[in-house]
Amino acid sequence: MGTDHHGRKDHLPDRSSREWCAEALARLDAGRPDSALDAARRAADLDPSAEWAYRLISLAHERLGRDADAVPAAERAVELARGSWPARLRLASVLRRVPGRWGDAVEHATLAAKFAPEEAGPRVLLGDLALLRGDHAAAERSYRAALATEPGQPQARVNLGLSLLRWDRHRPHHDPAWPVNPRDTGRARRALEVWSRQARLLVAVATVAIVAAALLSGWGAQAELGGFAVLALLVPLTVRQARRVGLWRYVRPMLCRDPWLGAHLVSAAVSVAAFAAWLLLAAMPTLPAAFDPVWAGLAGIAVLGWPALATVRALAEAWRGRPLRALAESARAQESERTARRNTGVTLWILLGRTWSVLVPLLGGALAVEPRAALAAVAVPYPMVRGYLRARHRGDRWLLAATSLVALSAVASAAGGLSGSAWAWRAGLGSLGVAMAVFLARAARAWWRGGAGPWRASLLMCDLPMGAEPSVPLGPEVRQTFSYARSIVLSYADSLGPRVAGAVASVTSSGELRLIAETEAWDAIEADPRVAVFATDPLQRRFWVEVRGIAHADSDVLRITPKQVFLGEFPGRHQRRQT
Known about the structure:
disordered N terminus, Pnp Oxidase, Chain A, alpha+beta, Serine Threonine Protein Phosphatase 5, Tetratricopeptide repeat
């Protein structure tokens, strides 16, 4: 009888290592990682060669947010069973969060997919690795391959929707494959952002102040001197933030990965240059009056740079990806995955933004040129309404209200264009304005409460635990068969088809088979490690064993990790049973 991590007695009888592993898995599923860690450690103490126990230890540490502690246990599991696809999957899942180990994570995930092409998990993780790097095409291929194997896989379904939306994680500037801590690139990014924000704000405030002083009080010359003081102030601010960047060799790749960061920096640099040029032009007394519009244009760049950039980004984010296809994927996983419900709602808001951004210029152009052209507005909300009805998303009344208002706007404006009714036009345009007000109110509510907002940044990646599958044990009957077998046959495949070879085998304490086989089999096994080993028990002459597994070369022997074990009796394999 043992005690749990709170000091209470768990009232569990003495159990075997596998029973403690099953108990640890049950506790993980129940959301008790601390208690699961205790059970998994007890399993490892009872059987130090139980790789399943070490995988569960790693998973419990990961659930507790201890990625550094999760790595050694996962590596130990791989050492014990090099051909175990769940062990490779568990190690890859942990290593993707360790700076500098991204390449190792991809390697182990690729091996897991090679060891178990019939399993969806390795394909899902490969898709996640591609998605986190921003390789949406590769991620989509991996997720579709996983769904072809297991159509109900929720993580593949949800994350496929993200790849179709061309989603970027919250650190788009950082490439996980870089051998540098994301915190360091994050600090560099913050320094660049702070400089661009400070530069634009100072220039904008100075421009407005100079214009106001010149027009209202007649102190234009003094205000211009203040503008030059602002330029001088920017020098120490720039030097200070440049020192904080530190990782200058990563700045260019960061800007390539995050073009909006580059846009902010370019906007700030242009604003400062425009402000300086404006001051210099204004200080030239012989400048012709025809250059006055130039001053106004340069001042406009300084003051309107940020609002214009924010507007362009909002439109670009709304029109990025294929939300209708993404909606079809995430909506199918709503019932089983909470993340899918959240992403479905955000995708519907993105569709709403697209529809609104089309209706505004369409209706504005119809009013200015030909009112009857507003009839085309009736077709604009169709994809949005169709997606909303198919998604069957419930719980967000703000979304329902905004969707209804945008649809009403299209119908009312079309009616106004055909009939010439001013009230219909007012109803249509007013509905568009109210829909925007609903969006802003919903966004303010989400910001105040710290919840998911109606914007792309609220999309979440589904990240379910991986690598907890039970290992395949070799029972007493199997061990006895391989201990006394006089003939053991190894079956493998090469470029010419299936092959068989004689072998000598033994069973290790960790449940692996150790084989000595002819050298011709080694090259073929390196290309395709999936093998089968057959043996008959001379003590029970009608009894045979088939072990299917993954072969891995280790020195002068082949280590075979079991994936499936079949037992049977002659004369036919139809009498077999799986253990």
